[in-house]
């Protein structure tokens, strides 16, 4: 039998699968097929999800995280998901501070004080960070560095920042009306379909500046579409905030980022010539799913035994008490 978890960070939801339970790890094709099956909002389990987080052994770290978007594409990193993987590995190994392996870096993670009763929290390292065109990749935009830059091919007057953390992000600071308007979806769809600018797609975030060190972020994700939150997106956005609005944000200072699914904290650090971002937020397990290994491999979900954990109620109490809920509630994607 195999047990998966249904998890979320800021209501950005995933199925978490510890592949070390399996007689052999899944192939990339099997993981892609399983992800599309499990996460489908109509035919998947528990109303679907935004992706799958697969854990495998990795020498010298507590384990490796592989991220698959709901469309089956692989992602370089997932900030909200990494917090739930940190919790899973902490509870599995008893460690509270350790590293999780990804193809691009071994990332430091640590258990934090709960955000509220029944709302466990973890901090995770978001890195490596790069503004280089080949890191996103981007091309055909008339520049090899996009920081506070108008990109007429994408929007007539918004100023964008593009950064890989290491998955690709394109960020603009906008008004409240623009945040709720049609442009985010239009740009998200344009740059995640066939296009000469971001050939591998890009996560697009619009953020409203609410005050010093305080943002509201909404993301149209590569490989998913709108989600309630994007951890790497909120991390990249606070780096862009510091670079483009130096009177309202600063390195090594705590930022609060509200999103349709809740809230996270970030701190942007700079070591010599490179940035890294600390992302702190909830790691909630809403259910466990148990089924025979063969049924999992075959995508036969009929046999799945589902147990709710009861944690969602505590998370909803925490979110209900947050400021800016009115704006969030107008933007929440079905949980
Ligand atoms: N859609 C993203 C991966 C998930 C990132 C997001 N869910 C997060 O929390 O960082 C990509 O393809 O780069």
UniProtKB/TrEMBL annotation:
Record's GO cellular component terms: cytoplasm
Protein location: Cytoplasm
Main localization (coarse): cytoplasm
Catalytic function, reaction form: (2S,6S)-2,6-diaminopimelate = meso-2,6-diaminopimelate
Residue numbers annotated as active site: 78, 230
Keyword Mitochondrion on entry: no
Site (Could be important to modulate the pK values of the two catalytic cysteine residues): 169, 221
Keyword tags: Amino-acid biosynthesis, Cytoplasm, Isomerase, Lysine biosynthesis
InterPro entries per UniProt: DAP_epimerase_AS (IPR018510), DAP_epimerase_DapF (IPR001653)
Pfam families: DAP_epimerase (PF01678)
Keyword check for Cytoplasm: yes
Catalytic activity, EC: 5.1.1.7
Binding site for substrate: 12, 69, 79-80, 167, 203, 221-222, 231-232
One MF annotation (Gene Ontology) recorded for this entry: diaminopimelate epimerase activity
The protein's annotated pathway: Amino-acid biosynthesis; L-lysine biosynthesis via DAP pathway; DL-2,6-diaminopimelate from LL-2,6-diaminopimelate: step 1/1
GO BP of this protein: lysine biosynthetic process via diaminopimelate
General function of this protein: Catalyzes the stereoinversion of LL-2,6-diaminopimelate (L,L-DAP) to meso-diaminopimelate (meso-DAP), a precursor of L-lysine and an essential component of the bacterial peptidoglycan.
Subunit (UniProt): Homodimer.
NCBIfam families (UniProt xref): DapF
Family: Belongs to the diaminopimelate epimerase family.
Protein name listed in UniProt: Diaminopimelate epimerase
Classification lineage: Bacteria, Bacillati, Bacillota, Bacilli, Lactobacillales
């Amino acid at each position: 039998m195999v047990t998966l978890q249904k998890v979320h960070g800021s209501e950005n939801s995933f199925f978490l699968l510890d592949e070390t339970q399996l007689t052999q790890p899944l192939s990339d094709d099997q993981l892609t097929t399983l992800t599309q099956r499990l996460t489908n909002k109509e035919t998947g389990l528990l109303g679907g999800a935004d992706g799958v987080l697969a854990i495998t052994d990795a020498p010298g770290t507590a384990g490796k995280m592989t991220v698959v978007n709901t469309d089956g594409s692989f992602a370089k990193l997932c900030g909200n998901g990494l917090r739930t993987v940190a919790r899973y590995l902490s509870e599995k190994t008893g460690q509270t501070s350790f590293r999780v392996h990804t193809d691009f870096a071994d990332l430091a993670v640590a258990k934090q004080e709960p955000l509220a009763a029944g709302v466990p929290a973890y901090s995770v390292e978001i890195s490596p960070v790069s503004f280089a065109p080949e890191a996103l990749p981007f091309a055909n935009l008339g520049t090899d560095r996009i920081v506070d830059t108008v990109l007429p091919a994408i929007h007539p007057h918004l100023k964008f920042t593009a950064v890989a953390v290491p998955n690709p992000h394109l960020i603009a600071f906008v008004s409240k009306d623009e945040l709720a308007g049609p442009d985010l979806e239009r740009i998200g769809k344009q740059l995640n379909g066939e296009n000469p600018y971001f050939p591998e797609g890009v996560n697009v975030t619009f953020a409203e500046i609410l005050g010093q060190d305080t943002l509201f972020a909404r993301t149209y994700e590569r490989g998913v579409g709108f989600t309630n939150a994007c951890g790497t997106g909120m991390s990249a956005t606070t780096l862009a905030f510091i670079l483009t609005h130096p009177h309202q944000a600063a390195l090594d200072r705590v930022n609060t980022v509200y999103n349709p699914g809740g809230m996270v904290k970030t701190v942007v650090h700079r070591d010599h010539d490179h940035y890294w971002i600390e992302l702190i937020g909830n790691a909630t397990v809403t259910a466990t799913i148990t089924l025979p290994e063969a049924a999992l491999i075959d995508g036969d979900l009929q046999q799945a035994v589902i147990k709710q954990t009861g944690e969602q109620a505590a998370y909803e109490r925490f979110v209900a008490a947050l400021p800016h809920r009115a704006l969030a509630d107008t933007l929440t994607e079905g949980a």
